[in-house]
Structure formats: C-alpha cells, structure tokens
Amino acid sequence: MALESTHNDLAAARSQHVARGVVTAHPIFVDRAHGSRVWDVNGRSYLDFVGGIGVLNVGHNHPRVVAAVKQQLERVSHAAFQVAGYDVYIELAARLNRLVGGSEAYKTVFLTTGAEAVENAVKIARAYRNAPGIIAFRGGFHGRTLLGMTLTGMSTPYKQNFGPFAGDVYHTPYPDPYRGFSGDDALRALDDLFATQIAPDRVAAIILELVQGDGGFLAAGSDFLKKLRELTTKHGIVLIADEIQTGFGRTGELFAFQEAGIQPDLVTVAKSLAGGLPLSGVVGRAEIMDAPLPGGLGGTYAGNPLACAAALAVLDLFEEERLTERARELGTTLRGGLFALADKYKEIGTIRGVGPMLAMEFVRNSDPHQPDADFAQRVIDACRDDGLLVIKCGVHRNNVRLLAPVNTELDDAREAIAILDRAIAKVRG
Questions:
Q1: Collapsing DSSP states into helix, strand and coil, what is residue 163?
Q2: Which residues 6+ apart lie within 8 Å of 297 measured at CB?
C-alpha cells in the first residue's frame, strides 16, 4: 500500500469509526516519534512543540523510559494496587513526597488521568474539611469528567449540553494584567464571593492552575499566590495546586509552586509524570491525605506498574541530566524569539507564560478585547505546512502555545521561532 493512500485510508477510517466529538488538531497520522520530532505516515518530519499536550517533557520515546518499561513488563504489567502492592508504586510515592513536601510529612495516591487526580483531590479535601464548597477560577481547565467540566472555567467547547453539572462549585476571576485585572482585583473578587455566595467555613478547597494551560498560559503571579496562600491558611481552606500541565519542569522548576514560592496542601500531577504513559496522582500533606477512610480512594488501573516504572525513569532524568536548568535555558531562548516576533508583528497582543511554557496571543487592532482566533488558527496551519506542530489555547482560542520537551535542543527552538516568523508573515499576506 502506497504511503499516500495509507494516510487517505486512515483519514477515511477515522471519519467512519471515531466519534466526531474527538477533535484532532492536525490532519496527520504519526508513524514514529523520537525526541522533539515526529514523522507522519507519509514520512514527513515535524518539530513537535505540542508533546502530547504537555505530556512529553523528556521527549518522545526517551531510551531510558523505554528501557524502564521493558524491564518492568518482564516482571509484572498489572496487579491493581488494591489487590496486591508492588515496589515501584511505593518507591515513586516516596520520591514524589520528598520532591513536593520536602521535610514535611506528605503522602501520595496514584490514579490514571488528570481528571481523576482532580476529582480525588476534591474528595480528599471534602473529607478533611467536612465541608462541600469548592472554588475554582474562570479560565481554568480541570478535566472532562462531570466534576472536571464543572470546575473548568470555560463554556466552549467543554460544557456544551452536558449538564446539569456538579453542585457546590463556585467560580471567581483569575488575574489577567493584560486586560487590566490584577492579582489584587482577583483577591477582592474572592472576598466578594465569600460575602455573597459561600462563607469560608463551608469551603473545602480552592483549586487553581498556577499558570492556566488551556485558558491561555496566564500566570497567577507570585504576589497573588502568596496572598492566596495566606488567605486559605487563615480560613483553614485546602489549597489545591493543579500542576497537571505545569509540573515536571514546564515552568523552569520541577513544579510551578516552587517557582512561585508557596507550599500547597495538595498537588495534582499527571501528563509528563510518566513520559507518555497514563499516570496521575495527588500528593499532599499526610493529615489531609489520610482523611478518606480505607476503600475511599483507588482505581483499577491506578498506579499501573509500567507507568510507575516510566515515572521513576523520568525523575532520574531530571536529576541526572539537569533538565530544570535546560528548561530555563529553553525558556530564555524561546522567550527572546517570541518577543522579537511581538515587536515585528502588531497582530501579537502579548507574550505570556513562565519558563518554556509560553504562548502568543493574537488580537485585532492591538486591542486586548478583540481576540483574533481566526488569525491564530491560520498561523497554526501555516506552521504545520512548514514542519512545526503547535496548538491553540485561551478562552477565545486566540493563543498559540508552545509545549516543547524541556530537553529540546536550542537549535530546534530557534528553528521553531523561524517557522513561526514565516507563518505569521504568510498569514498577514
């Protein structure tokens, strides 16, 4: 079968057999992948600055991850931790407890997806506080399950006609200095929520992404986060840091809360935790984590041994190959290139993000209140035509985001900036 017909056959089969609600950002089919590159079934190479939507911080098919999975596969591939324990689960939990909690007593539970981690963090917080309320932020993304959709602060495309949604969830504005809404404004809005919708003693937890992912790579800012930490401590509210997209080097530190200089009560992790295998977890203060009674937490595939082995290899790579340092170097290179593009093209309203987790927002007439989603999509398509994969984000879908592996070579980063430059010029005409 010819390569071109293989692509056409796959496209036809996808249309016939896959539910239309599953959107694929790029009309290609990946045949193989390595590092920061993928090759489609036609043999064409692309720089991959999506990385499975922030999953592949160590790149595709890292040899150390592959070897760890192969070795574990020959021992045990699945047992279900609720049936019988195994060493890699416990070893990984111990390492994450140290990395997140430092010298404090922390505990971990493993799950399968980011949405599961979020749901279980909420369960744990409610059990600990014996209170129902959960506060999330507008523009946040926390998953596609019923509770995940409820917590998510965007209507399109996630909520559609899928309601009614879970109860006792409240949304409050997130800092957005580009649109003139500061961290102090966000704190005042939270105080207003306490005064008008739910008293602090009925709030189990506040959950937020420290840098909103799908919401547009908005960073909460360390000043806001420190004041939020003080507020939650004052009221005894559990602070949940959703590090599913920001975790494992994405912001230049292992976790975004470290970059911000705060200590959350619970941290949700997933995506790049296991180098491409499905694994998530909740890591938190031991007294809070132990609030649910035995049997209240778990899942059939939760903490699968293959994924745990992969995650241990990922953590080894961070320790042995100075990946947080490389992430900062990558972020400096990308940020410099993106700001140069912003100076060149008036269609770029702002550059935002932390470390190598960066995005460009496209607007009309240099106006923050005139998002240009069409321009952003045309840039994405032009980048693909020139060999670079990127995707969009933002409440109005007018941001182009970069989620390259943190060990991406700097020459590849410069190539990506050059492709973005050509793509924007092409779309401008």
A1: coil
A2: 109, 120, 123, 124
Q: What tokens appear for 398 in the block?
A: 């007018």
Same domain, 36 and 105: no
Q: Establish if 67 belongs to a structural domain.
A: no
Q: Tens digits of per-residue pLDDT, 75-130?
A: 999 999 999 999 999 999 999 999 999 999 999 999 999 999 999 999 999 999 99
Residue finishing a domain among 320, 348, 370: 320
Contacts of 81 (CB under 8 A, 6+ apart): 89, 110, 298, 302, 303
Whether the Cβ atoms of residue 174 and residue 159 lie closer than 8 Å to each other: no
Does residue 297 share a domain with residue 180?
A: yes
> Which residues have CB under 8 Å from 367's CB, separation 6+?
349
Query: Is 70 domain-assigned?
Result: no
At residue 2, the pLDDT reads: 46
End position of a domain, from candidates 264, 293, 320: 320
Measured at the CA of 421, the angle between CA 418 and CA 427, to 5 degrees, comes to 140
CA angle 219, 174, 237 (to 5 degrees): 100
Distances (CA, A) of 149 to 73, 155, 217: 35, 9, 19
| pLDDT tens readout for residues 54-74 | 999 999 999 999 999 999 999
Please indicate, yes or no, if residue 69 is contained in any of the structural domains: no
